[in-house]
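Our platform keeps sequence and structure together, in a single record for each protein. This encoding replaces a full spatial description with a residue-level series of whole-number codes. We quote a single record here, exactly as it is kept in our systems:
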Amino acid sequence: MNAEAEKPSTLEELHIMLQNLLAERFKLRFHHEVKEMSAYVLTVDKGGPKNLKVHPSPNGGDVFLDQATEQLLHDKWNAHCSSMDLFVFRLSPMFDQPVINQTNLDGCFDFELTFTRELPRGIQEGQLFNGAPIDTYGPTIYQALQKQLGLKLESKKGPVDTLVIDHAEKPDQD
């Protein structure tokens, strides 16, 4: 599926356009429900936020959150005018539970985050990858968030916005 916005738009506007497109194409009807469930909650650490450069509010073309893997398990994220909601949205796939933004940090920020991912299941410390031992040295995502950005990620119960699909149809062949 290819689509193009008529004008520069914010990320939130693009999400609404995508929802409308899917609703039209699949005759999709849905509603949101907030459910209390296990989640990771992102908050500001007791020392306050660090290294989050405030950026003026942009249009959608100015927002990006680049994720690069410098070597196996070593990630570097570069944010340009990222809201905390976008950051949490991009963090969520790394975890087995939803991530909730409770930082109360509004606006958009430029920042860098460098961390080492956990070993995938079935891979062991010292195992070879392309002939070299897998390097697990470096801060975990939890340590990096705290030390580099002054944020804290904790597992606890919280209000999670869920999307409940009420109706969907197979699209017509175009």
Q: What stands out?
A: The chain is about 20% helix and 40% strand.
